Amino acid sequence: AAPRDALLRLAWHETAAAGANDRPNGGGDAAAALDAHPDLAAIAATPGAVPTTVLADFRAAGDPTPAAAREVLDRALGLLQAALADDRLGASRLVFVTQGAVAAGDDDAVPALAAAPLWGLVRSAQSEHPDRFVLVDLDDAEASLAALGAAVATGEPQVAVRDGRFLVPRLERVGAPGTAPDLARAAAGTVLITGGTSGVGAELARHLVARHGVTRLLLTSRRGAQAPGARELEQELAGLGASVRIVACDVGDRAQVEALVRGEAALSGVVHAAGTADNSLIASMDAAQVDRVLAPKVDAALHLHELTQDLDLGLFVLCSSMAATFGGPGQGNYAAANAFLDALAARRRASGRAGVSIAWGLWEGVGMTRDLTGGLEQLLGRLSGSAALRPFPAELGVELFDGALAAGLPLVFAGPYRVDIIRQEVAAGTVPPLLSGLVPARPQAAGARRPGSLQDRLSGAGDQDRHEAIVEEIRVQIATALGYESPESIRMDRSFLELGFDSLVSLELRKRLQSVTGLTLASTIMFDHPTPAALIAHLEGLGAANGADGRAVAAAPPSANGHAGAGSVTEMFRRAHQLGKAADGITLAEAAARLRPRFGLSHADDRAPAVIPLAAGAAEPIVFCIPSLVATAGPHEYVRFAKSFRERRDVVALPVPGFAADELLPSTLEAAAMALAAAIKRHAAGREVAIVGYSTGGLLAQAVAGACVREGVTPTAVVLLDSYTIESMWRLTDPVFDRMILAEGSGPEITEHTLMAMGTYLGMLATWAPTQAVAPTLLVKASDPMPGVVDDGDWTATWTAHHTTVEVPGSHLTMLEDHADSTARAIEEWLLGRPRGSPRRGRMRRLHRAR
Description:
By secondary structure, the chain is an alpha/beta fold. 38% of the residues lie in helices and 15% in strands. It is built from 29 helices and 22 strands. The protein is globular and about 80 Å long.
């Protein structure tokens, strides 16, 4: 697409008001007439029916400081998680009410800047859980507060009320700019680019020099000139005639930013491109993840805004993301941080100062997309809710940058899109409201079904026809969620893990299934019913239970959250963790597990688990993956990792014995290792074998490697993914258990049998000592400390036996998630060049993300 066709703006259009009966009565503070409760638990516990609408008042957002923004987000995240965790609130809509938190026009100044991130966070919650949450922003007019009830009744997910009028957001095309942006003022001095040594920042640095004649650049990153590629970039820019200074600066630290700004007398422009991601679904997100993403975005933007107020800047660009407005699933913290940038640009522009926020789509191979393994279009579709948006190369990105500056707007969306796909989505009724204004919509009678919908095909059909229609629809939805070309390629007996599902794909499929069936489905439905065939049987059962005959499908009650009573092992474990006594919780689970049946070494072969293929290819060795040993772990941990090996080599996940409800626990660690070794031997069938273990699973992998030798299968390689020695791994327990407990509701549940299995294995490992390595061993270390672990310089994984070490981007928690491709690439490179013969200690090297 040409640059002029890839630029959009956010326009707020007036929509029809709801009926007068929906308006709260009386003048003044209409909300005062409503029932008030201290929290959601009090509402759920109130006798009688739970209200269908609950208002959360965020009108007093506080001053625009980093602390105020975090306070708002902390409260909002707590409400979102409480609403999702309590089944009694499943039919209620939670409405977040703000005042002056969004710019509903190009001249809006966004007085409640601290509440702006809330909109990004809740937009992500809306994308993960449709129809559960609503956003309403008021102005200070009495008529707007009086119309609050009617605003909610519009049915729109996002509404701004101005002088009693209802405005809803829609994206529109930006007219082709008549001229190129005038950057003469910026080019006359020094342009500061945060995050300027890599990614989008580096691309814009090149562009400003080559296209706009900027001759002085101040580039920052956390590591400054020591950042990968920084020196090469400096030389490249110098070759173009620019004077470049590279400075190490934590832009989230006000003192460091102040020293940076005060040290540059001729500062004439700012491009804020720094940022980081720490993805997590809303149900499992914690405050540390929010803080990690906000610091280089929100804190840094405020520092730059305040510390340059006395300067006559010719350029002040904030690199934002479409996630702030579309609300990408799994990106609530990132969306929140960028929503603040959008609001800050509006505040600056309303005050007469330079300021534009560019909400980028996905750059191909630049910045945080470098670690993604193909499928950029699928990812962008999941983040935006539409297949119409497209990733773009850097060459188009810099053209979009110029177009955004020339547009003269405080907020511009930059990313190509396909009108034909939007038309298809409009016709099918699946287009996101934000994109619906880009093509004219055809009027449709209220309550009308789209032709060929599942309900139409089920209406009056016999049992066999109904089954075939459901199977066909489920195939289509699975193929669409995964990006498969043909629904017929979906094998119904393969596990969802084999098909390539991760948490985001599972979330998308669940949303699609709820849309086509009208059923309310558990968030863990793909874990509870692990194959398409099992899922279909479950859906047919729900339909029968609700009297689904094609004319109407009633909503099934939300599934129970799996929490047992107060005296159960699960609840006592949670209590121990809350009290800071995680070790006691593990001891409790281990003690309870002693009452479970066990298998010994003589029966290990009979207890070999069925392996789960995750990727296929001809290269050897086959990669066998052992999950970590926490209660919510399992083969799903390796889904993203395995995608990098597809069509290159087999990747197979090994379920650890004893974690399933109907399995025996091993009596010893040796028995468990021999059971896994037997599974490896059967599946390998004479081919070379490499064993990979993640976290505590790495310790088990070492034991399994020894068992394989005894089985006559000598592994050619063993890989430990951020595995700690027994003595040092306990420092991870609190943050790992924090994440494990928070993740409930968006993945496998903590159950009594998984807790007992975890306690059993951790207890056995506490008295286990690794023997001499039986194969060349690679320790893959995360480059960043995990949230909750003190960065004291001694936090990284260590291993005592002979090994080679490689460092990859990410933390202990993200190396198999956002950074799975980098982790896989490091292992693949090592496998191709691994030492032969006796293992020896190798030197450490660092894997950097390269363009």
